Amino acid sequence: MGDELRLAIASDMDIVHAREKGRELAAAHGFSLGDQTVIATAISEVARNIVLYARRGEVRIRVATDTGRDGVVVVAEDQGPGIRDIAQALQDGFSTSGGLGLGLPGARRLMDDFDLQSEPGRGTTVTMAKWKRSRG
Amino acid sequence: MEVPILKQGHYLIASIQSALTDADLSQLREALITRVGKYRARGVIVDVTALDVMDSFAVRTLRDIAHMARLRGSETVIVGIQPEVAFAMVQLGLSLKGIATALDLEEGLAFLDAKARERA
Questions:
Q1: pLDDT tens, A113-125?
Q2: Percent of all residues in chain B with a pLDDT value above 90, rounded to a whole number
Q3: Tell me, what's the ipTM?
Q4: Fold classified for B5-119
Q5: Which of B1, B58, B105, B115 is the most buried (most CB within 10 A)?
Q6: Which residues of chain A from 33 to 72 reach within 8 Å of chain B, CB to CB?
Q7: Which of B53, B87, B91 to mutate to test the interface with A (most CBs of A within 10 A)?
């Protein structure tokens, strides 16, 4: 079991740092440049949501193995206001911040696994994973 | 990190050198819009070759730059989107609809020259 990176997220600089760390980890485990970019982009979106809605939170990144495949697992967690309507938050174009409304639905499309847990007033946890495609 | 903006003839060239924070992107937008007026620029090129991630904030800012520049009488071309970045942008659902793009700086300059001839 590899080490888990725990990254505090509280500013736009932390967003860049988190996605760079995610890319490094994916690269170190032999993910393609395309997958590295996909993972970094998804991290950027969920980390931005933390800054935007909760002001601060944490992104944790680790490598996991499932049925012989390596995957990068990203958990983005905050104790912010939470999401009242999860289905709505996962719709393209829905935004309460004036953004493009593509952050969460986009991250879900980029990654293979995507899970969103949220409780109004308590916070939000996004867990997502990208699995290495088998060669051949 | 501030993005250097060069003036070349009637064009402004913003050459992004490294990863940008949201604040850096917003600052680039303000700087370009101000300079379009100051230098009476007819065209703006934003070179994103060095960007290894274009997320929703980056794309929104580039769109804003293009739309604002157009309102000020200037055409914008985004050049140098990397293949992996293009792939991730499409997956994410991001597009630069209505905004000119070109493979690299040279093609971007050729595009602006052609636009200028159309207008002349």
A1: 999 999 999 999 9
A2: 88
A3: 0.93
A4: Transcription Regulator spoIIAA (3.30.750)
A5: B58
A6: 33-34, 36-38, 40-41, 44-45, 48
A7: B53
Using a CB–CB cutoff of 8 Å, tell me whether A81 touches chain B.
no
Q: What percent of the residues of chain A are helix, what percent strand, and what percent coil, each to the nearest 5?
A: 40, 30, 30
In a domain, A136, yes or no: no
Which residues of chain A have a pLDDT value below 50? 136
- The SS3 of residue A14 is helix
Residues from chain A contacting residue B57 (CB–CB below 8 Å):
44, 48, 99
Pairing outcome for strands A69-78 and A57-66: antiparallel
Contact between residue A101 and residue A93 where contact means Cβ atoms under 8 Å apart? yes
Integer Cα distance of A20 and A39 in angstroms: 10
Tell me the whole-structure pTM to 2 decimals. Answer: 0.94
Query: What are the residue boundaries of the structural domains of chain B, listed by start?
Result: 5-119
Contacts of B46 (CB under 8 A, 6+ apart): B14, B16, B28, B32, B62, B65, B76, B77, B78, B79
**Shortest distance, CA B60 to any CA of chain A (angstroms):** 7
Task: Confirm or reject contact between B85 and chain A (CB < 8 A).
Answer: yes
